[in-house]
């Protein structure tokens, strides 16, 4: 159903899994890790130490298809480390109509970096909005190395999901745009031969929306840099949509893929 977005939410939820010793746990003061004079109203940080709390924090991971995918590939050890962790740090936030979601999000990423760099007993980071689990050192290598070089790579934070449809065409959609206060993007009816160009198009469009803090108007042709003519944005979905990790989305229609090649 097409609609006009009147309000947008910025939400994120990270869980850092760890195995702290008692002295280390007693010395943790997360607020001191941040550049904020005081913790913003939109940010919630909890150190989970009770077994039932830690177990609850693993519920989404255990129920996610991610668990089987990782175990079937080469990263099963990361899943095992997360499941066996004795402690967790939950970092979440929600902002209605953020003025600049990118600024808020970078503050959170910097805070994650400092926590992970300060405590070797942190073992993994789970991003609930993209269902991505990374080992501590891999997260620091992938995300922080770019930030250290003044590069904020959108693809480190927004996942593009590929699905086959009944007619054998492809469906590409993003997951994680809500972390920036933006709708996710969806593109249907893609031929296999056009997948690479379509993937580049949807990633570039996501970056354009986030970096320039823009929202394409409903039922309007996109005029952003690098976007081919004939691409129309339709506001769709709701914040209960599981296909987009509980985010609204923009359906991209009438794409002239051949013009993007």
Written overview of the protein:
The protein is an alpha+beta fold and 261 residues long. The chain folds into two domains: 9-152, no CATH class; 158-260, no CATH class. Helix content is 33%, strand content 26%. The chain has nine helices and eleven strands. It has helices at 22-27, 51-57, 59-63, 65-72, 76-84, 101-118, 136-148, 195-211, 257-260; strands at 9-18, 43-48, 87-96, 122-127, 132-135, 159-164, 170-175, 184-190, 220-221, 232-236, 249-253. The strands form two sheets. The chain has a six-stranded mixed β-sheet with strand order 6-7-8-11-10-9, with helices on one face. A five-stranded antiparallel β-sheet has the order 2-3-1-4-5, with helices on both faces. β4 (122-127) and β5 form a beta hairpin. α6 crosses α7. The longest helix is centred in the middle third of the chain and has 18 residues, at 101-118. The radius of gyration is 19 Å and the shape is globular. The model is unreliable at 70-74 and 255-261 (pLDDT under 50).
């Amino acid at each position: 159903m097409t609609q006009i977005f009147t309000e947008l939410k910025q939400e994120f939820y990270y869980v850092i899994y760890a195995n702290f010793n008692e002295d280390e746990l007693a010395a943790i003061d997360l607020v001191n890790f941040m550049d904020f004079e005081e913790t913003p109203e939109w940010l919630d940080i909890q150190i989970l130490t009770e077994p039932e709390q830690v177990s609850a924090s693993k519920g989404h991971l255990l129920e996610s298809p991610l668990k089987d995918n990782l175990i079937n590939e080469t990263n099963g050890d990361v899943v095992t480390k997360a499941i066996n962790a004795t402690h967790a740090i939950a970092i979440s936030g929600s902002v209605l109509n953020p003025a600049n979601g990118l600024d808020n999000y970078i503050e959170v990423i910097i805070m994650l970096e400092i926590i992970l760099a300060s405590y070797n007993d942190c073992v993994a980071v789970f991003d609930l909005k993209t269902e991505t689990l990374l080992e501590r050192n891999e997260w620091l290598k992938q995300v922080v190395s770019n930030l250290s070089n003044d590069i904020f790579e959108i693809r480190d934070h927004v996942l593009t999901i590929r699905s086959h449809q009944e007619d054998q065409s492809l469906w590409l959609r993003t997951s994680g745009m809500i972390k920036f206060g933006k709708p996710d993007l969806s593109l249907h009816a893609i031929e296999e031969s056009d997948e690479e160009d379509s993937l580049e198009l949807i990633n570039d469009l996501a970056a354009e929306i986030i970096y320039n803090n823009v929202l394409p108007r409903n039922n309007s042709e996109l005029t952003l840099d690098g976007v081919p003519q004939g691409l129309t944005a339709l506001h769709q979905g709701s914040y209960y949509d599981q296909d987009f990790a509980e985010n609204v989305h923009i359906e991209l229609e009438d794409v002239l893929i051949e013009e993007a090649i």
